[in-house]
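pasting for ref
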Amino acid sequence: LILKDKLIKFQTYGDDDRIQVKEELFERVYEHYYDSLPEDEQIAVSALQASFDVFVSEDAGFGDALLDEYFEQVKIRKNYSVNDLLLIKLYFVSCLARPIGYHHELFWMLSKKLIRETNSSDLETAYMLKRTVLDSLAVQWMEKSYSTFEPYVKAMNRLMILSQDFQNKPIVDMLEAMCTLFHKRDKEKAIRLYDRAIICAQAFGDQVLEARILGEKEKDLKTFEEMES
C-alpha cells in the first residue's frame, strides 16, 4: 500500500530522471508484491502502470486492454471509487496520446461528472479525484480550451484544501494564469499568477517544475503579444 501510494503521488513532469525512479518503483511492486495483492489492488496497479506507459510512450494502445475490460462499468457509475478514478485518469491520459481520435462527448461527460464529485468527495477519494481533474485540465490545455478552465481550477483548489495536500498548487496557479491571459485577456493578473506558481514551486524545492512553469510563462506571454499585435 505504501508503494502504491508512492506510485499515485510521484509525478515525473516528463523529466527523464523522475521517469527512471518511477519505473524502478513499478519493478519493485511487480517483483515483490503484485501476485499477492487482492484483485482490486491489482487493477489499481495495472491502471497506474498503463497510465505511466501511455504518458511516457505517447502510445494510447498501452491503455486499451484495461479500458476495454473495465471502462463500460465506469461510464455508468453514479459515484466513483478510487479504482474508477484511476481508470478515468487512464482514459484522459489516452486522450492526450490520441488527440485526434478520442471521443470528445465522453471526455466532457466524465469531466463534468468529476466536477460534481468534488462537491461531495471525502478524504479517501480527494487525492485521486484531484489528480484526475488535473488530467482533464491537461486535455483542455492540449485543446487550448482556456475558457473552460475556471470551474476545474476552482475544484482543484477545493480538493487541495480538503486533502491539505498542495503538491499541485504550482500547476493549478499556472493553469489559472493561462485562463486569465488567454480567456480573460488580463495580462497583469496573469503575470502575478505565473509568478505565484513559480514561487510556490521554489518553496517546494522542485527545480524541474519551477523551470517548466518559467518556460511556459515566457512562451505564453510571447504568444499573447503576437496575438495582440
